[in-house]
Design goal:
About 0% of the residues lie in helices and about 70% in strands. By secondary structure, it is an all-beta fold. The protein has one domain. A hairpin with a 6-residue loop joins strand 1 and strand 2. It is elongated.
């Protein structure tokens, strides 16, 4: 019951389905790609709301030699019930160079390469819907020197 209203029958259907593919090459290049769809549906007397969201990713790995490697991670989000700004893209890059094995390494990390400023997501229930908005850190790069002793 909500606000002293009579009880009512509510049907909620939620489905999640997707696929992934990962390589296992012995060379310099490997990948991991995947996508997931989430379908949500709420039905009650005189009320129906449904939508499908999609999350996809592509991760690339380049091991150029024993000392130098590069990782690229990308993500795409699509929210089916947002009327505007419903697709978001993200990309991060990390590279590492081992100056002296297990002693000294130099890394470069770059985050939020597409400089996405706001991220919105949508949810529904039998008594309402909501949009949540997150402010994100702007694009940045970090240079790191590690020394192990």
């Amino acid at each position: 019951m909500v606000n002293d209203s009579p009880t009512r029958e509510v049907t909620s259907d939620n489905y999640s389905y997707g696929l992934e593919l990962r390589s296992g090459f012995s060379g310099i290049f490997n990948y991991h790609i995947g996508t997931t769809w989430r379908t949500n549906s709420i039905r009650s007397a005189g009320f129906k709301n449904d939508f499908t969201n999609n999350e996809s990713f592509l991760d690339l790995s380049f091991i150029l030699n024993k000392k130098f490697n590069v990782q690229v991670q990308t993500e795409r989000y699509f929210f089916g019930n947002l009327s505007s700004d419903n697709t978001y893209y993200f990309a991060d890059l990390t590279s590492t160079y081992d100056i002296k094995k297990n002693k000294v390494s130099l890394s470069l990390s770059a985050k939020n390469l597409f400089n996405t400023k706001i991220f919105r997501e949508f949810s529904i229930s039998d008594i309402g819907s909501s949009t949540t908005e997150y402010r994100l850190l702007p694009r940045y790069a970090l240079l790191k020197l590690s020394y192990r002793f």
